[in-house]
Amino acid sequence: MIYTVECSFADPDSEAEWNDFYSLDKLPALISVSGFHTSQRLKALSGGCPVYLALHTIDGHDVLTGEEYRQKGGGNFARWQQHITDWHRNLYDGLDRALAVGADEVLVVSATGPQSLIGLGLTPSAMQAVELEKFPAQRWLAKMDRTRLPAIDRLPDDVHVYEAMTAQLTKGDDSAAGQGR
């Protein structure tokens, strides 16, 4: 299942420090939790959506209610909580593994249907919300080579574009190496 966490951050003075904490401390802590398989952070290039998106591949909802998650990954934002806005969490079915977005790629997402992504020449994958907020109820996503991305202001209104802030961390043989910004 795909666990998504989205938010914006309202304090420019501490945003870089918060991003360092999230990318360098929190993601490695999350990938160490039993039932987490991948973790990656992305940042929106387009407006109309929360600025930050974290995509995680997990075994299921039980992972998020377990003691290990509470100890290693859940919360830990007390210092920055007052500045975190537009916060949403969802658990989606439909993909076995979150897409890994490379430095030369972008993630293109729509919550209204696959047509806009197909119109960009992409083959979108569909996800259905099954736990937590369950909104948006569905999402379609695809990776695109950054050089093929049209100007952001020329994209359909229902399309949001994200660039990778970190490499996708993985567990096991792939190791959790390679965080890049």
Q: Give the helices and strands as they follow along the chain.
A: EHEEHHEEHEEEE
What is the number of domains?
1
pLDDT < 50 stretches: 173-181
Widest sheet: strand order?
A: 1-3-2-8-5-7-6-4
Query: Strand share of the residues?
Result: 35-45%
- CATH architectural grouping: 2-Layer Sandwich
Write the CATH fold name.
Alpha-Beta Plaits
CA-based shape: globular
Beta strands, count:
9
Count, helices: 4
Summarize the structure in words:
The chain is α+β, with helices and mostly antiparallel strands and 181 residues long. The chain has one domain: 2-Layer Sandwich (Alpha-Beta Plaits). Helices cover 20% and strands 35% of the residues. It is built from four helices and nine strands. It has helices at residues 12-31, 61-65, 67-72, 115-119, and strands at residues 2-9, 36-44, 52-58, 84-93, 105-110, 125-132, 138-145, 159-164, 169-170. The chain has an eight-stranded antiparallel barrel with strand order 1-3-2-8-5-7-6-4. The radius of gyration is 16 Å and the shape is globular.
In terms of topology, how is this protein built?
Elements: E1 2-9, H1 12-31, E2 36-44, E3 52-58, H2 61-65, H3 67-72, E4 84-93, E5 105-110, H4 115-119, E6 125-132, E7 138-145, E8 159-164, E9 169-170
Antiparallel strand pairs: 1-3, 1-4, 2-3, 2-8, 2-9, 4-6, 5-7, 5-8, 6-7
How would you summarize this macromolecular structure in one to three sentences?
Helix content is 20%, strand content 35%. The protein contains 4 helices and 9 strands.
Keywords:
181 residues, globular, single chain, 4 helices, 35% strand, 8-stranded antiparallel beta barrel, disordered C terminus, alpha+beta
